[in-house]
Amino acid sequence: MKPSIPKGTRDFLPEQVNKRNYIFSVIKKTFQLHGYVPIETPVMEKLSTLTGKYGEEGDKLLFKILNNGDFLSKANKEALEAGNSSKLVSSIADRGLRYDLTVPFARFVTMHQNDISFPFKRYQMQQVWRADRPQRGRYREFYQCDADVVGSDSLMYEAELMKVFDLVFSELNIAVTIKINNRKILYGIAEAFGIEDKFMSMTIAMDKLDKIGEEKVMQEMVDREIPREAAEKVIATLAVDNLTDLEQVFANSPTGLKGIEELRIFHSYADLSPLENKLKFDISLARGLNYYTGCIFEVEADDVKIGSIGGGGRYDDLTGVFGLKNVSGVGISFGFARIYDVMEELNLFPQDITKTISALIIAFDDASHLHSYKLLTQLRSQGINTDLYPSPSKLKKQMNYANALKVPYTILVGSDEMESGLYTIKDMVKGEQEKLSLEGIVEKLQ
C-alpha cells in the first residue's frame, strides 16, 4: 500500500523546517523582549479539562483518544446500541489532544499557583490539533505560539500584546491589520435589543460575518431563535465604526458602556507606542470562544486572503473552572501555519536562512579523502558548518550534490593541495575560485 499521512497534516523538508525555525525565532525573541518566560504542557489533556471551554462548535472539533486496552468492555452499552456517539464518548475516551494552548495554560496555572509569581507572563510554542475540515490555511495539526499574562486586570497588557503582534509582523515584513473589539460591547448589543439569553447564539453567528455575509448571518440568528426584528437591529449596529456613536446605542446597556470604557483605557496606553501596522476597531469581531470576557483581537494579512493569522483576548475567570477564582488573564496566539503560507506566497523569507552548511569538501582520491576528514574536523572546531562528501567519487557527481544542497562554497582537495597546504575554494554562485590556507578559509567562512 502506498504510504500516506492523515488529512490536515504535513511533512516538512529541511528547507521548510529552516523557514519555520526562522519564524519561531522572530516570535520567541519578541516574547522574551517583553519579559515572557517559556512553559510546556502535555500533548494530551483530560477531556474534562478541555470540554465546555470552547463553545459548542469547538467541542465538536476535539480529537478524542480511546481508552487503553479493551475500551469497549466499559462502553455505555445503551449508547452503543443506539448509535449515540455523544453519550458513548465519555465511556470509551477520557483524554483528548489539546485544542489550543490557553485552556491547558489555565489548568497549569491552577496546579502550579504556588510555584509562580503573579502577574505571570508566559509564552508557549507547541502543536495543537483540531478535527476541522482541511483547506488552504486550515490544518488539523498545527503550531500555536502564545503569550499570556495572568493575575492582573490591567489594560496595559492589552496594549503590550498589540505591540508584540506589531513587532513580529513588522520584522517578518507582513503588512497586517490588527482588529480589536470587546466582548462587553457584543454583550451590550444583545442587552440593548433584549436578547441577552441568546448572546452565545448571536456571537457564534456574528463570527461568520466575513465568511457568509450579512444575510446568512441574520438567517442563522433567526434559526437560533433570535427574533428577526432583533437580528435586523444587530446587523444594523454592525455598521457603527466608532465608540462615540456606539454610546447612543448603549444608552440602556451598562455592560456595553463598560466595554467602551475599557477600549478607551486600552487606547490611552496603546497610543503612547504607535504601531507600524494598522489598528482597527471592528464591532463585528466576535472570536467564537466562550472564555473571552473583555478586549478581543484578530490579525489579518493585508496582501493575502487567508483568514486570521493571529488572535486573542481577555478572559476574566478561565482558571475558575479549575478551582482558582478571580484570576484575570489576557493572551494572544500566532497562527503559525498561516503565517508560513503567507510568507511563502509573498516570497518574504530571507534567501540565506535555508543554508545548512557553509562549505562542502570534495576529495579527489582516497589519500586526499583522509586528509579532507582532518580538514573537516579543523573547520568544525572553528564553528564553521562544514561537510565532506562520503567518498572520492567523480568530480561532477560531487559538484551536483553541492548544487542540490545549495552550498555557497566547495573546497577542493587533491595531492597538490595536500602538499602545498593551500586549498582551492570555489564560490558556487559566482563560479570564482582561489587558493587559501586553512587560516584563510576560516577567515573567509566566518
Q: How many strand segments?
A: 16
Whole-Å distance between the termini?
48 Å
User: What fraction strand?
Assistant: 15-25%
Which value, in Å, is the CA radius of gyration?
A: 28 Å
Total individual domains: 2
Strand order of the largest sheet: 1-5-6-11-10-9-7-8
Q: Which sheet architecture does the biggest sheet show?
A: 8 strands, mixed
CATH topology of the largest domain: BirA Bifunctional Protein, domain 2
CATH-assigned homologous superfamily of the largest domain: Bira Bifunctional Protein, Domain 2
What low-confidence regions span 5 or more consecutive residues with pLDDT below 50?
none
Compact overview of the structure:
This protein has 446 residues and is of the alpha+beta class. It contains 18 helices and 16 strands. The chain is 42% helix and 19% strand.
Provide a descriptive summary of the structure in words.
The structure is a single chain. The chain has 446 residues and is of the alpha+beta class. The protein folds into two domains: 14-62 and 99-345, BirA Bifunctional Protein, domain 2; 355-445, Rossmann fold. The chain is built from 18 helices and 16 strands. Strand 9 (295-301) and strand 10 form a beta hairpin. It is elongated and about 90 Å long. The model has no long low-confidence stretch (mean pLDDT 92).
